[in-house]
């Protein structure tokens, strides 16, 4: 059962309904900037989180692509979503490498010729073969390409210095992903495993939020509480769709099973999170 | 019956609309306001920012001068004044009897509010934003490390630009979520398809509808983005359709013509006179006599329809046939029943000597829509449509049509009855309704301490 929580309305004016208009026309309030040294710890912790997830991504991708190479459709289908989760969690960093992001995670809509486009590769190309064609025929080269790209990503990230504004901004970026493509169910249109990705994005955003929470709380305790509640709300709704309540690895029901009412119920807190987290950088005085 | 046609009375001097009494009443004698309008046009004064300047023009009717126009609801827009400002507070909402500007859109929303308290907060936020946007002003500044509070598409100072925002509720808002069922307006219902409809679920219905009209579409988009930005977690856009009507340059010495729709006909000619308060109280606004909950008084039913026009096919139809389909001349807009050579749009159709439809076919659009018999007087509606153009269909034909919007005090006696009479009309070969919905326009917010929907919440508490 859901508890009643305030996950609402954090827009610039929304907290001031019916306030006299003149009250809104205020000079910009200078934000007490967080000392740059304070960010070092959380950023370093985040890098560890990303590297952990990359390690998982590499090993899961190895199993997944091996199944494709072996022509084991059923196994490859089963491994598709659990492998992607690790990518979805670290998207803000993965996206820094636009070439790899395109070859690993682009969707057919990104190409003029759609599925037939020779540049269409990666997870979603394999998804199409596995879930639309029910086949691995001709997929060997795409499987190999995906493995190579993931390895490449891993080595590039090892040597990367994480810019704090990218890390902090990543929380909002992940929620924008959710708002734009997950709620609508566009991401995994053949496998219908959107909820896995959804959870991956939320996990990634929440990790960033948790790491910077103590700093954010110094600036605005109410903000932290609200964001926390909204994350809880989203996760509670997602939990309703878990196949097994106590075993996260069992995953989620097909996105086809998500009712319109629940899509709307998810849209609410997701939008508030996107709106709230869009202010996290500013709150921490980051450019 | 003709006494109610918009061109026959003197619209200015019956007006006592409380929503527009910000200015002292002018003491002009009744006659010849049309003459006056002509004079103003001839003198080139109508475009001179009457939003402010009108105050000084003693002799024009206050309500109209205040808002800087001398037009009927569906006259082709002329006023492009960025300072044109309509009062937000009042007994009725704006955007219903307000003369139609050059652009308009209807946005339908699903309400995400979790409970009544949330709904109340939503209504308060909407009211506050609508009050600000329609009056204009400077946008607030914010520390540049944060996302700006305003989209900025109109710059640092928002001009009112003739913006009106009109909030209406759909039948689905009265389901079990918010405990409003006992206060539902009697005739508010989910729109059912008519025989010629091909409704697209993605463009139908909604918990709320917001009509946004302005001189320019940018002003409308700015307002919409402001609403979305300020209601996260409370509202989700369900569908939206914008449209335009072609403005006319002021024509000295000529009577205002109605704007043309995408079939090339003047649309709005026989609309009831929106400035006639007595008539509007009868046909458009819910009042004491209308067998509706008391909170609903001052509101109105909005029927919205997205009606595709098959324009290529229409353009391949002989002119004579086009005119028979509507019952009016295409260029002049004059009713066919007016046999004189220089028939005018303003002439009132007269079917009394044409019972067999030899001049105006019995199934002509205007004759079915308004047979002009005493019994059908109560079915009249106030139309306020916009033309839309959405792109291209898979078959290479243009996706154009009419965002049909009409207001009435009684949805069943109004739109539903009129549409039933139109079912099967020859025009159907050229049109296809694909979306829309029925909504109830809330009564106005009285002042700064009131909010739209306050009466509805109180009545269902
Ligand atoms: C694409 C669809 C439509 C087009 C192109 C269209 C066009 C027109 C035109 C050209 C006129 C004559 C000028 C005027 O009096 O305004 C007219 C009149 C009228 N139309 Fe439509 N119309 C459409 C749909 C509708 C619908 C859906 C209704 C209501 C159910 C409606 C109700 C009326 C009424 C009441 C009149 C005035 C008749 C009179 O009082 O003489 N129209 N329309
Ligand atoms: Cu007058």
UniProtKB/TrEMBL annotation, chain A:
Q: Where in the cell is it found?
A: Cell envelope
Pfam families linked = Peptidase_M75
- What is the protein named? Iron uptake system protein EfeO
Cite a GO CC annotation: cell envelope
> Which InterPro entries does the entry link to?
EfeM/EfeO_iron_uptake, Imelysin-like, Imelysin-like_EfeO/Algp7, Imelysin_sf, Iron_uptake_EfeM/EfeO
Q: Where, by residue number, does the polypeptide cross the bilayer?
A: none
* Main location group: other
**Any idea where the Imelysin-like domain is?**
44-279
Q: Give the UniProt family note.
A: Belongs to the EfeM/EfeO family.
> Which residues belong to the signal peptide in this entry?
1-32
The record lists the lineage as: Bacteria, Pseudomonadati, Pseudomonadota, Gammaproteobacteria, Oceanospirillales
Q: Which CDD domains does the UniProt entry name for this protein?
A: Imelysin-like_EfeO
Respond yes or no to whether keyword Signal is given for this record. Answer: yes
Q: Which Gene3D superfamilies match?
A: M75 peptidase, HXXE motif
Q: Which UniProt keywords apply?
A: Signal
From TrEMBL, chain B:
Q: Which residues form a coiled coil?
A: 109-136
Organism domain of life: Bacteria
Write down the required cofactor(s).
heme b
Could you tell me where this protein is found in the cell?
Cell envelope; Periplasm
Q: What does this protein do?
A: Involved in the recovery of exogenous heme iron. Extracts iron from heme while preserving the protoporphyrin ring intact.
Q: Where is the Dyp-type peroxidase N-terminal domain?
A: 93-243
Name the positions where protoporphyrin IX binds: 268-270, 328
Q: Which Pfam families match?
A: Dyp_perox_C, Dyp_perox_N
Family to which the UniProt record says this protein belongs? Belongs to the DyP-type peroxidase family. EfeB subfamily.
Instruction: Quickly give the catalysed reaction.
Output: heme b + 2 H(+) = protoporphyrin IX + Fe(2+)
Provide the residue positions that the database annotates as binding heme b: 268-270, 365, 370-372, 383
Q: Which GO terms describe its biological process?
A: iron import into cell
Q: Which EC numbers does the record give?
A: 1.11.1.-
Q: What is this protein called?
A: Deferrochelatase
């Amino acid at each position: 059962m859901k508890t009643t929580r305030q996950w609402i309305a954090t827009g610039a004016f929304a907290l001031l309904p019916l306030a006299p208009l003149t009250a809104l026309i205020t000079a910009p309030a200078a934000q007490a900037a967080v000392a740059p040294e304070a960010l070092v710890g959380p950023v370093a912790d985040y890098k560890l989180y990303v590297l952990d997830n990359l390690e998982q991504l590499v090993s899961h991708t190895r199993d997944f692509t091996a199944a494709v190479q072996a022509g084991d459709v059923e196994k490859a289908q089963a491994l598709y979503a659990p492998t992607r989760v690790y990518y979805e969690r670290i998207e803000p960093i993965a996206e820094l490498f636009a070439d790899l992001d395109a070859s690993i995670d682009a969707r057919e809509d990104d190409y003029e010729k759609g599925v037939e486009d020779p540049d269409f590769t990666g997870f979603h190309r394999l998804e199409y073969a596995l879930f639309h064609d029910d086949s691995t025929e001709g997929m060997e080269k795409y499987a190999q390409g995906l493995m190579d790209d993931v390895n490449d990503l891993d080595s590039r990230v090892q040597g990367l210095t994480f810019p704090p504004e990218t890390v902090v901004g990543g929380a909002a970026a992940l929620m924008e992903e959710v708002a734009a493509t997950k709620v609508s169910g566009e991401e995994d249109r053949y496998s219908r495993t959107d909820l896995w990705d959804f959870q991956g994005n939320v996990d990634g955003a929440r990790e960033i939020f948790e790491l910077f929470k103590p700093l954010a709380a110094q600036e605005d305790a109410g903000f932290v509480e609200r964001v926390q509640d909204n994350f809880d709300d989203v996760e509670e709704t997602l939990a309703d769709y878990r196949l097994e309540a106590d075993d996260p690895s069992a995953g989620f029901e097909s996105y086809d099973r998500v009712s319109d009412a629940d899509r709307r119920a998810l849209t609410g807190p997701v939008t508030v999170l996107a709106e709230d987290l869009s202010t996290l950088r500013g709150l921490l005085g980051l450019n | 019956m003709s006494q109610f046609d918009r061109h026959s009375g003197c619209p200015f001097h019956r007006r006592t609309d409380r929503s527009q009494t910000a200015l002292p009443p002018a003491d002009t004698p009744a006659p010849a306001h049309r003459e006056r309008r002509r004079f103003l046009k001839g003198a080139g004064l109508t475009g001179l920012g009457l939003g402010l300047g009108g105050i000084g023009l003693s002799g024009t009717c206050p309500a109209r001068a205040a808002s800087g126009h001398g037009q009927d609801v569906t006259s082709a827009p002329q006023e492009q004044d960025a300072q044109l400002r309509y009062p937000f507070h009042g007994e009725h909402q704006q955007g219903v009897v307000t003369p139609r500007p050059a652009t308009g859109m209807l946005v339908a929303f699903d309400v995400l509010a979790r409970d009544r308290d949330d709904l109340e907060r939503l209504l308060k936020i909407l009211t506050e934003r609508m009050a600000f946007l329609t009056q204009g002003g400077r946008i607030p500044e914010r520390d540049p490390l944060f996302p700006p509070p305003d989209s900025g598409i109109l710059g640092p100072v928002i001009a009112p630009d003739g913006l009106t925002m009109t909030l209406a509720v759909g039948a689905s808002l009265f389901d079990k979520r918010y405990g409003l069922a006992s206060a539902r307006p009697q005739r508010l219902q989910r729109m059912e398809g008519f025989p010629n409809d091909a409704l697209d679920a993605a463009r139908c219905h909604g918990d709320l509808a917001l009509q946004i009209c302005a001189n320019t579409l940018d002003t409308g988009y700015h307002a919409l983005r402001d609403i979305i930005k300020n209601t996260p977690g409370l509202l989700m856009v369900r569908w939206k359709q914008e449209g335009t009507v072609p403005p006319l340059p002021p024509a000295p010495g000529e009577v205002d013509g109605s704007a043309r729709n995408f079939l090339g006909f003047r649309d709005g000619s026989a609309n009831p006179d929106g400035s006639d308060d007595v008539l509007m109280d009868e046909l458009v606004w819910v009042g004491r006599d209308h067998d509706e909950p008391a909170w609903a008084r001052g509101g109105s039913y909005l029927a919205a329809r997205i009606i595709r026009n098959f324009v290529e096919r229409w353009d391949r139809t002989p002119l004579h046939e086009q005119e028979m389909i509507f019952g009016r001349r295409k260029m002049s807009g004059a009713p066919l029943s007016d046999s004189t050579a220089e028939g005018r749009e303003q002439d009132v159709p007269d079917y009394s000597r044409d019972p067999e439809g030899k001049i105006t076919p019995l199934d002509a659009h205007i004759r079915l829509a308004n047979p002009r018999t005493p019994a059908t007087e109560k079915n009249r509606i106030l139309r306020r449509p916009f033309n839309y153009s959405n792109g291209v269909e898979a078959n290479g034909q243009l996706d154009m049509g009419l965002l049909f919007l009409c207001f009435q005090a009684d949805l069943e006696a109004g739109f539903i009855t009129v549409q039933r009479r139109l079912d099967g009309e020859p025009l159907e070969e050229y049109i296809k309704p694909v979306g829309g919905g029925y909504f109830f326009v809330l009564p106005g917010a009285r002042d700064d301490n009131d909010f739209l929907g306050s009466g509805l919440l109180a009545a269902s508490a």
